[in-house]
What does this fold into?
Amino acid sequence: MASLGLTLSCTISRLNLMSELSNNLPTIRVFRALSSKLTPQKPLHHHRLFKSSFSTLNCSKTLGSNLVFNDNLVVLGIETSCDDTAAAVVRGDGEILSQVVSSQADLLARYGGVAPKMAEEAHSQVIDQVVQDALDKANLTEADLSAVAVTIGPGLSLCLRVGVQKARKIAATYQLPIVGVHHMEAHALVARLCDRDLQFPFMALLISGGHNLIVLARDLGHYLQLGTTIDDAIGEAYDKSAKWLGLDLRRSGGPAIEELARQGDAQSVKFSVPMKQHKDCNFSYAGLKTQVKLAIESKNLDAGIPFSSASIEDQRLRADIAASFQRVAVLHLEERCERAIQWALEIEPLIKHLVVSGGVASNQYVRARLHEVVARNSLQLVCPPPSLCTDNGVMIAWTGIENFRLGRFDPPPPAVEPEDCQLDLRPRWPLGEEYERGRSIARSMRTARIHPSLTALTQASQCQKS
It folds into this structure.
């Protein structure tokens, strides 16, 4: 509990809540319903109103059950958690004013995956231009913003640092509130921007290169983890399989495998479905990766020869392996989702939606197979468009908006920060508390140096309030 208390007092925690609003804040109105309709208006310089209302050293309390709702919210979102540098400007009514993404696809192809130090340098080289482009496309300046939202975890520490430093610089210069965002919560919540009928509670399957997570979203900041990966995520398996098959990684492994799989026979290679003996909702892709590698070796395929230069027979064999891999990888998703839906309905019988988001959710085969799963269970599938499934600034800005409305934001940082200022970066930050039935004795995930989950922090802050 001592460590939890320290976490709650950190300078840039997204759960620092503002309790006192000055009486001269005419542009902030309190509404009781999150679904209130907003009317787009010319953005105001809200940041000027906050200059005397914050202390950069003290955590503040919650606003209670009422929601802070602002017709004129305009939030800049910054995302640098892994290998894409992204920024976007989003209005409080959900209008996307701009979206800019700088890809590191060439680095991925050169190194065969994400190299943290190289990724950090790439972020540093483009972050200023990406943010400026986002503002220019929105026809705004920093002075027009209401707040800045930025990913603080989970992700690669070196990469997170670049985005957080940029966000704090802007917030300090223009005296803007700042919202620290959980990357995986953002993947889940962006669906609420796309589908305004999506209300809590709902289920979310979040699948990407680094994450395989299925949660019950009970409320903003409140998530119950039904299952996660015990080793590798599905996106990692796609990327490694693409590399071993000699595919062009400049478009990332997922799309490359998906395209090649259309040419192959999905029944030709008999891969085993992972974790059939485990009756839980956790995932494992390390063994399937090994099966793919062994299949490639058994057919004497040379991954050093690019697919485009391989013989017709070699190309056919690679397509068969890709199709067989994808069938089993997604079948594993289907089986775990089927069980997770049953668990979730026992907990929250009124659930109507399954959100599928994250980079792998762009895959049309994945969407089609999961659509059948939810249809069998009388649910609706909600998938953001592909551009909002992969890492992007829109999801960060929108999550910032949702939290800002509840008063969950930090005061502007000091104009001059000491050189030894320790930023609050959370590279290993669970989203929700683990469901008892979902705990796996097979879990090999290291637990050292993990932040308390977002849900635990939210609950702790509410206890402090009461």
Summary: Confidence is low (pLDDT under 50) at residues 1-70. The longest helix spans residues 312-347.
